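> run fold ROK family protein
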Amino acid sequence: MKISCIDIGGTYIKSGVLEDGVLTDVEETPTDGGGGARAMLSRVAQLVRQTPGVERVGVSTAGEVDA
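> ok
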């Protein structure tokens, strides 16, 4: 099973793909704090979509999330 892992930090959004206990495709992109929530969610969605076959998504972030 492929799991897209996303860590939303104040400075960077870090992402990777976990499959069979192995983390691959690790990427780090600057967090666009000035772009607001919509821009950040758009970037996260783009990171998830770039890996075909993802079955699950895990997201971590410091602070509150209004889901």
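The chain is about 20% helix and 50% strand.
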